Amino acid sequence: MKTVLYFFAVLIIWNSVCVCGKEFLEPSESPWTLYSLAEDNTRLPCRFNTSDSEVKVVQVMWSREKSKGGEEQIITAHFSEGQTENTGYAGRVRFENSDPIADSALILMGTSPADEGKYICKVATFPTGNFETEISLTVWTKPIASLEPIIMVEGQSYSLAATCRSVAKPMAGLSWDTELPGRSKNHSFDDGVASIQFSLHPLRSMNGQKLDCLVWHPSQKGPHRITNNLTVHYPPNAVISGYEDNWHVDMQEAVLQCKGQGNPKPHQFNWTRKGENLPEGVTVEGGMLRFGRPLRLTDKGAYICTTTNVVGAGKAEIELNISESSLQGTSVNLILMIIIGGVAVVVVLFLIIVIVSVNRHYKRKNQQLAIELIEKKEEISTLSRQASFRRVHSTPSENRYSDDTHALRVEGTLRTSLSSLVCLFSADICFTSYHFYYAYCTVARHGI
């Protein structure tokens, strides 16, 4: 009976007193605007100031304002009767705190855009009366973005290359991250739908270049990037490889390789010979032209490779020259001749160095010999003068005998000394020295 009376007293106070927002610690003001993301849990704050020990919170109730007017109860917590929920919110709402009287924050689980609206937290106290605070909830939706690239073809006119779209609340901002020389255009629609387009004139050099879409939204710290590379299709450029100007008769395993540099890659290759059919014994394996036999002179000519993809075709031509003999033997002979010539040059240079060295050696020896001959000549001249002087001061018989004897003695001495000196050297030097000796002997005999 006492409890019922107390409950009625609370109802009377609730209907008679309403103080809005001034006694709440959370939220700090009323009405309070709150933003939340769809699919996330949303916390609606409500905490009454109970610093006054004489004030006691009796009941807390959350309600929501209807779009057509009026309110609907969501959940209620009584200090003694416990909690009650509206069946329409069962399993979707709960108090954050196990003691909702102390902290009455409400949790909306799995928030959806339909939860957007005005929420009211009402607190009944004793003996001071009723208090309430309002929270306006705005539910954002994360951007759902997509990018639609378009395959372009080289040579086509200025056209659309890609479209980026986004659905979000509030509406997302869209931009392009690229260095391509194109033009961007934005569009916006109802219900948070936005799109952006990028157009350009396609060239094959643009194929594979970056064309990313950036999605900007307040629910994100930075832009969300959708990566994309521009695709430009173009016809192939045929390139033939494998031939060098050394093909000759009887050469084995000769092969020509044709490659097509296009986008997409060529799927078909065709080989022909200009003015005539392909030779016998030649097979085509994709882009490869294989000579399955030794080469012949009749294999020469202009060969054409044609590559094809979904865009177009490319063509390459190569002229084959077949020589009658291999250049390998000629090359070996040439190398051998070069080696022999090099050895011959080295030998000649060596001989020249030896001859010059020997010539210098004998030249020095001849110079030394000439100096010694001059010294001997001076010595002989001195001896001759002495002999002449003796003849003048001696008797005639003695003079003749002495003169002859002395002349013979001087001549023998000179012959011995010069011979021993000259013959120490080579035959050519001895011959030269002998002429000096002979000239001197002639002078001595005739008394010159």
UniProtKB/TrEMBL annotation:
Where in this chain does the record put each Ig-like domain?
27-138, 143-231, 236-323
Q: Where in the cell is it found?
A: Membrane
Residue spans making up a coiled coil are: 359-386
Positions of transmembrane segments: 334-358
State whether keyword Coiled coil applies: yes
- Give the membrane topology, semicolon-separated if more than one: Single-pass membrane protein
Q: Which GO terms describe its cellular component?
A: adherens junction; membrane
What protein name is recorded for this chain?
Nectin-4
Organism listed in the record: Triplophysa rosa
